[in-house]
Write a structure and sequence with these properties.
With 213 residues, the protein is mainly alpha-helical. It contains ten helices and two strands; from the N terminus they run ααααααααααββ. Helix 4 runs antiparallel to helix 6 (84-111), helix 4 (46-59) crosses helix 7 (117-133) and helix 6 crosses helix 7 (117-133). The chain is globular.
C-alpha cells in the first residue's frame, strides 16, 4: 500500500503538507541538509542513498534510478534473477527500503526517536528474511548459482531453514484443524467473535458471543 502511495506521489512529505496550508519545518529530518519532498526523502537523502548502496552491494547490482524513486519501484520486479527466491528477496528489499525510511522519518518527527542508518538497514534485512520464511518454496525454486546463493547466505537463509519453516506451518495448520473449545476459567468470560465485509467499503458486520462456561 505504501509503495502504491509513493507511485502516485501521495505520501505526506512537508512539501505537500505546506500546500494544504500548514506551516512547519521543511528540512529533511534524516539528513538536515535538504528540503523534504518524496524524491529527496526516499532517494536523494544521504540516509536513503546509504540504504540503496547497501542494496547494490547485497545483490551486486541495482536498477535504482537516482532521479526518480517511482521508476526504481516499478523496475524492482522479480524477473531480474533466474532464482525465484532471490528475485523475491530483491523485490522485497526495494519495497522495505522506502517503507523503513518513511517509518524512521515519522519516528523522528512524532516520537523524538532516531535509529542509526545501519539499524534501519538491519530492519530491512530482517523483514525480507521473515517474509521469505513465511512462504512455501518448492525445491526447484531454491536452485541458484553460487553467487546468488551467497546473497541468501547474507540474508541468513538456507534451504534447510525454508523447509523447516514450511514443516512448522503444516504442523500449525494440523493443530488448528483439531482445535477444541475450552471453557472459560472460573471468574472469567470468553468472547468468540467474527466479522466479514462485502467488497472494499461495502456492507460489513460482526458479531460475537460471551460465555462463562
Amino acid at each position: 500500500m505504501f509503495a502504491w502511495l509513493v507511485g502516485r506521489k501521495r505520501i505526506l512529505t512537508w512539501d505537500r503538507i505546506q500546500k494544504r496550508g500548514f506551516s512547519g519545518p521543511s528540512r529533511c529530518c534524516l539528513c538536515n541538509s535538504g528540503e523534504e519532498d518524496q524524491e529527496h526523502l526516499l532517494n536523494g537523502c544521504k540516509v536513503a542513498q546509504l540504504q540503496w548502496e547497501k542494496t547494490r552491494n547485497l545483490f551486486s547490482s541495482t536498477k535504482r534510478n537516482p532521479q526518480d524513486i517511482v521508476h526504481t519501484l516499478v523496475d524492482s520486479g522479480e524477473g531480474k534473477f533466474q532464482s525465484k527466491i532471490v528475485g523475491r528477496a530483491w523485490s522485497m528489499t526495494t519495497g522495505f527500503n522506502v517503507w523503513n525510511l518513511w517509518k524512521e522519518r515519522n519516528n523522528r518527527i512524532f516520537k523524538g526517536k532516531s535509529s542509526d542508518p545501519e539499524d534501519v538497514w538491519k530492519m530491512t534485512l530482517h523483514q525480507v528474511r521473515e517474509s521469505i520464511l513465511a512462504e512455501n518454496w518448492a525445491e526447484e525454486e531454491w536452485n541458484t548459482s553460487e553467487a546468488k546463493a551467497d546473497i541468501l547466505k547474507k540474508l541468513n537463509l538456507d534451504q534447510g531453514m525454508i523447509y523447516q519453516q514450511a514443516k512448522k506451518q503444516r504442523q500449525s495448520m494440523a493443530l488448528q484443524s483439531h482445535a477444541v473449545y475450552r471453557k472459560a476459567p472460573e471468574g472469567f468470560m470468553k468472547l468468540n467473535f467474527d466479522g466479514a465485509a462485502k467488497g472494499n467499503l461495502g456492507p460489513a458486520g460482526f458479531g460475537g458471543i460471551f460465555r462463562n462456561r
